[in-house]
Amino acid sequence: MATASKGSKVKGGGVRFAPSQVTEGAHGHVHFDEKLHDSAVMVTQEKDGSFLVKVGFLKILHKYEITFLLPLVQRLGKDVCAVPLPNINLRVISITSLPEGYSVKCEYTAHKEGVLKEEMVLASEAGEGACIKVVVQARVMGKGLAAPAGSGAGTWRGSLGFGAAIPSWRSR
Questions:
Q1: What is the pLDDT of residues 96-113, one digit of tens each?
Q2: CATH number for 112
Q3: Quick check: is 158 in a domain?
Q4: What single DSSP character describes residue 88?
Q5: Distances from the Cα of 25 to the Cαs of 17, 51, 94, 101, 141, in angstroms?
Q6: DSSP string covering 114-142, please?
Q7: Which family is this sequence assigned to (predicted)?
Q8: What confidence tier does 3 reach under pLDDT thresholds 50, 70, 90?
Q9: pTM (2 decimals)?
Q10: 102 in a structural domain
C-alpha cells in the first residue's frame, strides 16, 4: 500500500476544462498543443496533516475540472465526503475510494489573477468527527499574459496517484 509521509510530494492528477466549456469558438475557449506534456498536479502532505494540491498555471475566467489522488488517511476510513463550505470557486464533484487512497474530482473557477488558494474539507461518512483540510493552489494568469517558458502551461498531463499514467486533458 502506497502512502505519502508528512512533507512528501507526489505527482498525481490532471486538469482539464470543465464540461461547460465545450463549444468551439465559445467565449473563453482555449486550445493548447497536445504535444506538450510536462505539467503535473503535485500533492503534498503538510506537517499538520493537511494536503496542498498544486495545479500550476490556469487562465483567468475559465473553469477547470481537476482530478487528484490523496493517499489513504487511516482516521477517515474508506467512506469520505466533502464538507459543504461556502466556496463558489471550488466545488467537489466526486470522491472515489481506491485501494491506494481517494480520487477527488472537483471544478475550479479561476476568478482572479495571482496565486490563489481555495480550501475544501473531507470528512469521514462514519460520523466520527475525523476530517482533513485540502488546499488547491493555482497560479492564475490574466488575459494576454503568458506562462514562463518551460512551465508547461496548458499541457496539464499528470499521473493518477503513484505512477499510473492518465491521458492528457483537452477542451471538450
A1: 999 999 999 999 999 999
A2: 2.60.40.10
A3: no
A4: S
A5: 14, 37, 29, 38, 20
A6: EEEEEEEEEEETT-SS-EEEEEEEEEEE-
A7: Belongs to the ADISSP family.
A8: very low
A9: 0.66
A10: yes
